Model the fold of this input.
Amino acid sequence: MLIGIFTAAWLLVLIGTVIIFEYIVPLDIFHSFLDSIVKGFLTMILVVVWLYLFVRMRNLMVRTQLRIEKKVPN
Amino acid sequence: MDYHKEGKPPIPRPGGPAIIAAIVISELFLFAFTGSYAVLGLALVTLLSGVIGIVDDLKTLGGIVKPALLLIGGLPLVILQYFLPQDMVYNHHLYLPLFDTPANIPLIYILLIIVAIPVVTNTINTIDVLNGVVTGTILIASVPMGFAILLRYLEGKESPAAIAAFFPFVAATLAFYYFHMYPSKIFPGDSGAMAMGAAYGTMAIIAGVEVVAVIAILPAIMNSFFFLSSVKRLVEHRDLKSQPVTVLSDNKMIATSDSRAPVTLMRLLVGTQAKSEKEIGRDILKLCAYSSFLAGITAILTWVVTIA
Done:
C-alpha cells in the first residue's frame, strides 16, 4: 500500500513541477502584469488540487491501515 | 533517554555540534583549495541552520518560532549570489524530466531557496524518530543525488567543485551513522538533524539537482505532510496531547487508536501489527530506498533521455 502511495506521490511531484515550471511560468498572454496574476492564480489552483490529492491519499491510508476509535458523545 | 528500549537507557545527545563541525570545517578547507563560492555557501547554510538547531536543543523552540528562524538559513546563498558575478553560487535554471530546456526562473528561484532550506531542514528533522533513521535516510537519498550530480558533470554542466562538495557532507553523515545506527550510541539532536537537512538542501541547490533531491526524501516529506494535515497546525512533538504509537511491555510498538494522535509514517507502519524499533527503522529505510530508486529514474529522465 505504502509503495503505491509513494509511486503516486512521485508522479504527482513530477507532473506538478513540469506543469508549473514548463507551462505556467513561461506564460505570456497579455504582455503585462496581468500575466503574473494569471500565473499566480493557475499555480494556486494546481497547488490546491495537489494538496487535495495528497489528503485523499492520507485518508485512504488511515482507513486501511489504522483502527481509530470514534469519540463517543457524553 | 532512549524511550523505545528496555530500561530506557540514557544516550548522550546532541551529536549535532560534531556533525556541524565536520561538515563546515571540511567544506571551508575545500573552499580554500577550490575558491568555489558554492562550497562556501554550503558551509555557511549548514552553520547557520546548525546553530539554530543547537539553540533548539538547549532551549526548545516553539513549532512556529523554529521554521520562522530557519527562514534565514538560505540567506547566505542569496547574498553571496547577489554580490558575486552571475551563477558563481547556484544556477537559477530548474532542470525538469523529459524537457531539453530548463525553466529559467531567476526571481522565483530566490523565493524557492528561502522557502526550500527551512522546509527541507524541518522535514529531515521530523524523520528523526528512531535509531539510525535520519542518518540512514540522508545516506540513502545521497545515492541518487550523487548519481544526478555525476550525470550533470558528464554533461559538462557541473563544476568539479560541486562534486567535491558532495563528499565531505556524505562522509560526515556516514561517520555519524556508524554511532547512530541501531542500537544508537549517540543521538544527533535537533542540531544534527537540522544541519544534515540544511546541507542536503543546499547541496541540491548548488548542484542543480533539486527535483531528484526532493523525490529521494519523499518518505520524510510524506511524514511531515501526514503530520501537519492531521494536526492542522505547526506544533512540537513534545507538546502533543496524544502520541502516534504506544510502546508495549515487550518494547514493540503499535499504532494508538486515539483519534487525537497525529498520523505519521511510523504510525502507519505499525497500524495492523506491532513491530520492534529495529523492524520499523528497517521499513522506513526500505521506503527511502524505493524513493531513491524513483529519484534515480527521474535523474535518468532528466539528463539521459533528454540528451539522447
Q: What stands out?
A: Chain A touches chain B at residues 2-3, 5-7, 9-10, 13-14, 17-18, 21-22, 25-26, 54-55, 58, 61-62, 65-71 (CB under 8 Å). The helical segments of chain A are 2-24, 34-65. Residues 2-65 of chain A form one domain. The longest helix of chain A spans residues 34-65.
